[in-house]
Amino acid sequence: MTDPILLTPGPLTTRPATRQAMLRDWGSRDPAFVALTAELRARLLAVAQGEATHVCVPLQGSGTFIVEAAVATLVRPSDRLLVLVNGAYGERIAAIARRLGRPVAVLRWPEHRPVEPVEVAAALAADPGITHVALVHCETTTGLLNPLAEVAQAVAAAGRALLLDAMSSFGAIAIDLRAVPVTAVMASANKCLEGVPGIGFALVAREALARAAGVSPSLSLDLHEQWRGFEKDGQWRFTPPVQVVAALVEALRQLEAEGGPPARLARYRENLATLLAGMRRLGFEPYLDEAVQAPIIATFRVPTDRPFRFAAFYDALAARGFLVYPGKLTEAETFRIGCIGAVDRRDIERLLAAVAEVAGAAAAA
Ligand SMILES: *Cc1c(COP(=O)(O)O)cnc(C)c1O
Fold this sequence. Notes:
Shape: globular
Number of helices: 12
CATH architecture of the largest domain: 3-Layer(aba) Sandwich
Catalytic activity: (2-aminoethyl)phosphonate + pyruvate = phosphonoacetaldehyde + L-alanine
Order of helices and strands: EHHEHEHEHEEEHEEEHHHHEHEEEH
Function: Involved in phosphonate degradation.
Number of domains: 2
CATH topology of the largest domain: Aspartate Aminotransferase, domain 2
Bound molecules: pyridoxal-5'-phosphate
Subunit structure: Homodimer.
Protein name: 2-aminoethylphosphonate--pyruvate transaminase
EC number: 2.6.1.37
């Protein structure tokens, strides 16, 4: 059996060189690993042009851990966080803040509609107690792209701080920290960076992080202390996932070799265009308007004009070497197919051939 192709939002298909980078042991306090960590932090910062203003703080764990750490470290009990929600990941940020006992306000839009910057500006004008705003860049629930530049402008104009969950966009969709005012960008290794799962990281405005000593109620999820640790001796405070770090550094070298985020975005766009056109041809209706669709993951409605069971569809595609993803919507029956990872148009074309083969079988099952 060859490895399956993962058409998911992550963990996803990685290149052989990325997996190969994990085939050795590293001493976590050895100068070679300290150098690797320094390269990791520098490369991540460079992806978003944050060298002059931000610092990179990697953290063990999945993406949710870094979001929780950033909220815990940057939002004080006396602050108030406004969460902009149009999907499950926005809801998760609000849940994190509530669990941490931080005051939270929520502004919601339907899952198929982008966050509306004018409404954000109005909410900030109406409530001077709000100190921070949280936005999900690409809402992976649907694959919708929220208008980062416009929201960041509205938040900065009101003098508030923006926390950006860029988990499923970082590395492909440009975030230029020289031009877009964001206090903290959170992302993880295993999405558009095409690394393996096990670390998240935040790019945090140096001044905001320097002021955040003692704010986090959690020891392990304290980004200020995690940063101080790196600044002191270049080492991780607690056991780092050394192989995951090695794989991510290799993946970042490959990102550079591919031509950086613009080249990666172009490949993902081609994947998405091929996928949408092919699925439409096969009678599957995309859930989102193309105008708000990011080239990250596409959501399709479960067909209603014929019997269709997602479980049977999934199994039949898996048997042909393709792993797709269930839906996560509250209001419509859907499933998802990712466009990211070490896959290109030819992989999507092979997937479409498999879908054509199995769609009838899934209907009958
Ligand atoms: C993947 C993802 C996360 C983090 O999820 P984990 O399962 O903890 O890695 C957070 N936000 C968004 C938008 C994501 O796509």
